[in-house]
Design a protein that fits this description.
Chain A has one domain. Helices cover about 55% and strands about 10% of the residues of chain A. Chain A contains six helices and two strands. In chain A, helix 2 packs parallel to helix 6. Chain A is globular, with a radius of gyration of 14 Å. Chain B has one domain. Helix content of chain B is about 20%, strand content about 35%. Chain B contains one helix and two strands. A two-stranded parallel ribbon of chain B has the order 1-2. The longest helix of chain B has 9 residues. The termini of chain B are far apart. Classes of the chains: A mainly alpha, B alpha+beta. Strand 1 of chain A pairs parallel with strand 1 of chain B, so a sheet runs across the interface.
């Protein structure tokens, strides 16, 4: 994850009520989305940015996951995400997100 | 389940951009406090 974005996420986690924050990703690749998720859960896995060694444990989802798709306005989702959803490997992304959340919760 | 939550959005230039995700998340009753579009690679 971009170092500047790591810094902003860290600042929000410090200034806001962490229980009230959620992080939503839009990464095209499952692996890249997984790395971003890991960064906001257990810290920067590359140990390069401000979140290195900082476990924020923020709830994190990818926008194509059913928990988002099933809870938002279907028309807006279709207009904004529908086209890209067709070209993304949604199953791989969902599996990767589940795996990262499970491994970071363990 | 997301009503009243504050959302940090990290979009992807090659995937789904931040503003598109923000539009969707707003319909869930969450407040978008940060939205960016980065290059994930």
């Amino acid at each position: 994850m971009d170092l500047e974005i790591q810094k902003r996420v860290k600042e929000f986690a410090e200034s806001e009520d962490k229980d009230n924050l959620i992080v939503i990703l839009g990464g095209a690749e499952a692996e890249a989305a997984g790395l971003a998720a890991e960064t906001v859960l257990s810290g920067d896995p590359t140990f390069a940015g401000p979140l290195a060694g900082v476990a924020l444990n923020l709830p994190v989802y990818h926008v194509v996951e059913p928990i988002i798709k099933d809870n938002c306005d279907a028309q807006v989702y279709d207009d904004q995400i529908g086209m890209m959803e067709m070209v993304l490997d949604v199953e791989a992304i969902c599996n990767e997100m589940d795996e990262i959340r499970s491994s970071c919760a363990a | 389940m997301f009503t009243g939550k504050k959302a940090i959005i990290i979009g992807d230039r090659d995937g789904i951009p931040g503003p598109a995700i923000a539009e969707v998340i707003k319909t869930m009753g969450a407040e978008v406090i940060f939205a960016s579009t980065e290059c994930f690679v």
